[in-house]
Amino acid sequence: MAEEIKNKNGLVLLDFWVSPFGQRCRIALAEKGLAYEYSEQELLGTKSELLLRSNPIHKKIPVLIHDGRPVNESLVILNYLEDAFPDAPPLLPADPYARAQARFWAAYSDKVYEVGSRLWKTKGDAQSQARAEMLQVLGNLDGELGEKPFFAGEKFGFVDLALVPFMPWLMPSFERYGGFSVAEVAPRLAAWADRCMERESVAKTLYPGDKVDEFITLLKKKYGIE
């Protein structure tokens, strides 16, 4: 059982294979070189007692268990890793203002998933509104990235790993449901996604867009969405 697993860092990650929020944590752990035990959770059926006990408020993944104590919510987990393992390679910049900006844009990146989910769950005016919102979100992210290789500059970091797990959802699924092309509306962001995929931590964690598309189709069938 996951509770009984021991490793030198005392870390167990409760997760679900296609979750972009869990993938954030997996990429961060890889970038920091931290060993951990992975515990795949059932989200579409009966949830495990371990998950319900570890996250009784939201009852969802990801949950990072460190020496028996749970930490919930992906961005909270990323910040926790910064604090709990100060000797590991940092994800956040040293400057306080730059750190604040990184946290802001990492939180903002959640809109890609939130708005994108409305693209495949809705039709008509609601879908048109979601499309307009998505184009604005992508434009804002593309503008913040600018001509930099990564959001913090030359180095892959906090905002990059927070945002990049949404890319296989965005391309091709959100694109198709929204009737747009990321390469056309946010070309710098599209090129950035390709650069991120060259990193081992990202390439080994993310699934191809067609696998994500299959999962979205499964969700549509489960929830009776035509």
TrEMBL record:
<keyword id="KW-0808">Transferase</keyword>
<dbReference type="InterPro" id="IPR004045">
    <property type="entry name" value="Glutathione_S-Trfase_N"/>
</dbReference>
<dbReference type="InterPro" id="IPR036249">
    <property type="entry name" value="Thioredoxin-like_sf"/>
</dbReference>
<dbReference type="Pfam" id="PF13417">
    <property type="entry name" value="GST_N_3"/>
</dbReference>
<dbReference type="InterPro" id="IPR045073">
    <property type="entry name" value="Omega/Tau-like"/>
</dbReference>
<dbReference type="InterPro" id="IPR010987">
    <property type="entry name" value="Glutathione-S-Trfase_C-like"/>
</dbReference>
<dbReference type="InterPro" id="IPR045074">
    <property type="entry name" value="GST_C_Tau"/>
</dbReference>
<dbReference type="Pfam" id="PF00043">
    <property type="entry name" value="GST_C"/>
</dbReference>
<dbReference type="GO" id="GO:0004364">
    <property type="term" value="F:glutathione transferase activity"/>
</dbReference>
<feature type="domain" description="GST C-terminal">
    <location>
        <begin position="95"/>
        <end position="223"/>
    </location>
</feature>
<dbReference type="InterPro" id="IPR040079">
    <property type="entry name" value="Glutathione_S-Trfase"/>
</dbReference>
<dbReference type="GO" id="GO:0006749">
    <property type="term" value="P:glutathione metabolic process"/>
</dbReference>
<dbReference type="InterPro" id="IPR004046">
    <property type="entry name" value="GST_C"/>
</dbReference>
<dbReference type="GO" id="GO:0005737">
    <property type="term" value="C:cytoplasm"/>
</dbReference>
<dbReference type="InterPro" id="IPR036282">
    <property type="entry name" value="Glutathione-S-Trfase_C_sf"/>
</dbReference>
<feature type="domain" description="GST N-terminal">
    <location>
        <begin position="9"/>
        <end position="89"/>
    </location>
</feature>
<protein>
    <recommendedName>
        <fullName>glutathione transferase</fullName>
        <ecNumber>2.5.1.18</ecNumber>
    </recommendedName>
</protein>
